[in-house]
Amino acid sequence: MAIRRLHSEPRYSEIVIHNGTVHLGGQLADDLSGDIRQQTRETLANIDRLLAEAGTDKTRILSTTIYLRDIATDFAAMNEVWDAWVAPGASPARATVEARLYAPEVRVEMMVIAALP
Q1: CA 23 to CA 51: how far, in whole Å?
Q2: Nearest C-alpha neighbor of 48 from the set 20, 24, 66
Q3: Which domain holds residue 101?
Q4: CATH number reported for the structural domain that contains residue 41 in this entry
Q5: How many domains does the chain have?
Q6: Which of 20, 27, 61, 92 has its CA at a distance of 20 to 30 angstroms from the CA of residue 43?
Q7: CB within 8 A of 52, min separation 6: which ones?
């Protein structure tokens, strides 16, 4: 089965589709000056957009890995936004970890794996 790569650069692809599964590269907010709630909302909007481009949506997310710059400070607020966004009855498997992200202003990054319809 063929592998499709969308929005590819030398180091990564934003979307990789293979064998009925969509893998999104790490997604960030567009505006990194905002607080965790704003960055989480923008990150989730980018995930929605890329999943739609790949032909699926958030109801088909299988797993999500969330990286937080400061889990002690940002976990609760990120979860408030996440809980409002996640489709009822379609909660994916999920892990949340604290990580040093590529720039100090990045508060959250998410990787998603979803199924195609």
Answers
A1: 9
A2: 24
A3: 3-115
A4: 3.30.1330.40
A5: 1
A6: 20
A7: none
